[in-house]
Inverse folding.
């Protein structure tokens, strides 16, 4: 009658905190996670293959729909990868605006992460606070390109239009209040005993494992590896920006939380610099109406909010569309480390760890 | 009700029914108010509106409700209560929803589990006293009960506290059985967590209530409240102060509220033990949770905050003979309950959730030793006084 066996439990794909349609097959001994296997693919649309049948201009629209919380960062990677493939040089003003919007997107993405992660741990209020600020960022996106979420913000060769009048005021108003808002979140969380108890020492990932698993982004930096594509392989106008790469050495959930908060402060700095040093000039390079590729290949890494987002494009002679398109999605590769991180922990730690990995299934499943 | 030898059996029965109905009315006024307050206070904490309208259509029942609420919003003062009718909408929704019983579940237990929770939490009120004496006396003209006092309590049991603790602990059976009978994994985990948590927290909760029992030397609810407020030496005040916070912590855990909402930790266990429940069966669990909150608040305010006496922690004896604020009143008692319910909501809006093992550690490693020390101090005070 009294059997002692492990219980296999399906967490997801419909579960309040698997952030979309992630499915975890957990083997539980009581509440302890003995084994975890992520099952993905519920949101697979074949973005890479679709893009191979689209022109280089059309492909960008699909990148919006990969990581839908950071569409601008995805757009930037695509635009720059195509520009690299065709050797197009982008005007300096366009690069500045791109950098600025990219950093806004980083903040917006981190705000979504912070809100949902806090909600997973039970702090309901932070979620609504972060979405309040995210709303302002989405308003800025809307003012810039008309769309809020799937922005398709940039064009190959620069920007479709310059910044609209009045947006500078909007941005400065946001910058003026944002640091206070960050402090507000921190008041609720950073020194909260329960928050610390829940996050410190859980979901551990050391630097060697992180590197071995190919983990990038804030998860890697929280494990003590100061790797940031913006510094290592500067793109857009990051080479001209003065910012730091925040790192922690603990590699636990709390470290990842602190790293992301620090990143938002750095993003604030970068946006400020972009806005203050915005050069005059055109925002669009002269490019042909039709881009026909040569036999060529390019890999372009960018630092998306979740980690290294790399676009690999192969051209075909005379073709309007890429011969091969591959995305190195940060979430997909970061998710590999999840079983390692949650093994031996409790179910509640598993939830917290999914939270700090910041997975977006649109990008993982593509 | 205080049955005396001069009352006939009919009079006793009718009075018992009337008093029970009065308490039930109180419960079913405070529960909707609490859910409404939860929406509004959380809304205020979270920088949003809270409840102002029903989702859905402009026609039919919801449309009518929305027009009522819209009208309320335009009136002065009434406008803060806009959204209160949403509770009616909730109840209607819960009643008209399909009552799903999973095919593979244990049907009988699945069906009675919500009732166990609900009955246990309502029955506790038989032992709770809102006011130690008669609220009013029926006029002679009233048939059967004419001339009899209508008291602020249903029954003045000598073992009142024991009854309350005993009956309220039955409620956990509803949760455990509901989780188990669902024959589903998330509810099972929720039910097991709940069993462990509530059984653990029952110990410090009871021990923290034993300090007042030792101080007063009685289990009678009315006597305890009166003695705690009017006859305690001043050294008991810090003890009651500490005891209040310990009791409240345990109370939060007993009622499965944040930061201890393990059984239904929605981000881990979907909806915990009531994942498989729908309609009014779910509604019973929901109501039971809110009624339990009222019970915990009522006990905390009786034994630590003075109950019907204004000043908390045994300080009331200094103002006992002051007019207006000196005599006990049911208003103070209800006000204290409402304040504690507000604290519940306030805490929910502010802090995250503990992890399951941490919840258990708090009970066994901190609260129980602490309450034992408290108990010892209470005994010393009692012996010395």
């Amino acid at each position: 009658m009294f059997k002692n066996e492990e219980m296999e439990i399906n967490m997801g794909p419909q579960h309040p905190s698997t952030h979309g349609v992630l499915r975890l097959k957990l083997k539980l001994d009581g509440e302890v996670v003995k084994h975890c296997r992520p099952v993905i693919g519920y949101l697979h649309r074949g973005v890479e293959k679709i893009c191979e049948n689209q022109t280089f201009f059309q492909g960008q629209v699909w990148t919006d729909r990969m990581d839908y919380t950071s569409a601008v960062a995805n757009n930037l990677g695509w635009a720059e990868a195509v520009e690299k493939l065709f050797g197009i040089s982008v005007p300096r003003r366009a690069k500045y605006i791109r950098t600025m919007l990219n950093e806004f997107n980083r903040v917006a993405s981190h705000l979504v992460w912070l809100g949902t992660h806090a909600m997973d741990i039970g702090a309901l209020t932070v979620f609504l606070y972060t979405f309040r600020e995210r709303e302002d960022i989405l308003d800025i996106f809307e003012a810039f390109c008309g769309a809020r979420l799937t922005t398709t913000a940039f064009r190959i060769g620069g920007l479709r239009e310059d910044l609209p009048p009045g947006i500078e005021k909007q941005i400065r108003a946001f910058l003026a209040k944002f640091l206070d808002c960050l402090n507000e979140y921190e008041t609720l969380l950073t020194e909260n005993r329960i928050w610390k108890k829940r996050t410190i020492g859980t979901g551990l990932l050391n630097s060697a494992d992180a590197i071995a698993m190919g983990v990038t982004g804030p998860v890697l930096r929280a494990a003590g590896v100061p790797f940031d594509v913006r510094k290592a392989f500067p793109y857009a106008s990051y080479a001209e920006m003065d910012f730091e790469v925040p790192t922690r050495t603990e590699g636990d959930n709390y470290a990842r939380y602190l790293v992301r908060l620090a990143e938002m402060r750095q993003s604030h700095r970068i946006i400020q610099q972009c806005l203050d040093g915005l050069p005059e000039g055109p925002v669009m390079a002269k490019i042909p109406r039709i881009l026909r590729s040569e036999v060529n290949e390019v890999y372009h890494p960018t630092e998306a909010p979740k980690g290294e987002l790399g676009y690999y494009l192969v051209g075909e002679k005379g073709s309007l569309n890429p011969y091969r398109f591959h995305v190195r999605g940060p979430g997909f590769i970061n998710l590999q480390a999840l079983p390692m991180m949650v093994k031996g922990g409790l179910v509640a730690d598993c939830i917290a760890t999914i939270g700090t990995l910041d997975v977006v299934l649109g990008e993982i499943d593509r | 009700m205080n049955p005396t030898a001069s009352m006939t059996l009919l009079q006793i029965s009718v009075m018992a029914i009337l008093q029970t109905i009065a308490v039930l009315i109180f419960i079913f006024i405070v529960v909707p108010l609490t859910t409404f307050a939860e929406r509004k206070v959380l809304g205020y904490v979270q920088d949003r509106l809270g409840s102002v309208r029903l989702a859905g259509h402009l026609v039919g029942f919801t449309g009518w409700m929305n027009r009522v609420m819209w009208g309320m919003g335009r009136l002065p003062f009434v406008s803060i209560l806009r959204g209160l009718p949403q509770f009616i909408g909730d109840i209607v929704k819960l009643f008209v929803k399909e009552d799903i019983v999973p095919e593979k579940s244990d049907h009988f237990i699945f069906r009675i589990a919500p009732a166990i929770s609900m009955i246990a939490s309502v029955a506790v009120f038989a032992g709770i006293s809102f006011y130690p004496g008669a609220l009013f006396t029926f006029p002679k003209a009233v048939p059967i009960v004419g001339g009899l006092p209508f008291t602020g309590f249903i029954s003045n049991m000598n073992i009142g506290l024991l009854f309350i603790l005993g009956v309220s602990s039955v409620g956990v059976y509803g949760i455990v059985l509901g989780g188990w009978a669902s024959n589903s994994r998330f509810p099972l985990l929720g039910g097991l967590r709940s069993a462990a948590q509530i059984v653990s927290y029952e110990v410090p909760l009871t021990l923290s209530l034993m300090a007042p029992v030792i101080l007063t030397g009685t289990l009678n609810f009315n006597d305890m409240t009166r003695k705690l407020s009017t006859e305690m030496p001043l050294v008991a005040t810090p003890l009651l102060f500490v005891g209040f916070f310990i009791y409240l912590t345990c109370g939060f855990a007993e009622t499965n509220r944040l930061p201890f909402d393990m059984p239904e930790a929605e981000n881990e266990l979907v909806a915990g033990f009531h994942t498989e429940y729908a309609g009014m069966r779910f509604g019973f669990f929901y109501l039971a949770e809110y009624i339990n909150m009222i019970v915990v608040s009522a006990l905390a305010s009786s034994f630590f905050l003075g109950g019907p006496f204004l000043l908390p922690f045994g300080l009331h004896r200094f103002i006992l003979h002051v007019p207006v604020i000196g005599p006990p009143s049911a208003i103070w008692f209800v006000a204290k309950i409402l304040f504690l319910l507000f604290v519940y909501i306030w805490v929910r809006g502010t802090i995250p959730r503990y992890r399951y093992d941490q919840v258990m550690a708090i009970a066994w490693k901190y609260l129980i030793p602490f309450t034992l020390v408290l108990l010892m101090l209470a005994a010393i005070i009692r012996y010395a006084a």
Q: What stands out?
A: Residues 200 and 286 of chain B are 22 Å apart (CA to CA). Chain B touches chain A through 29 residues (CB under 8 Å).
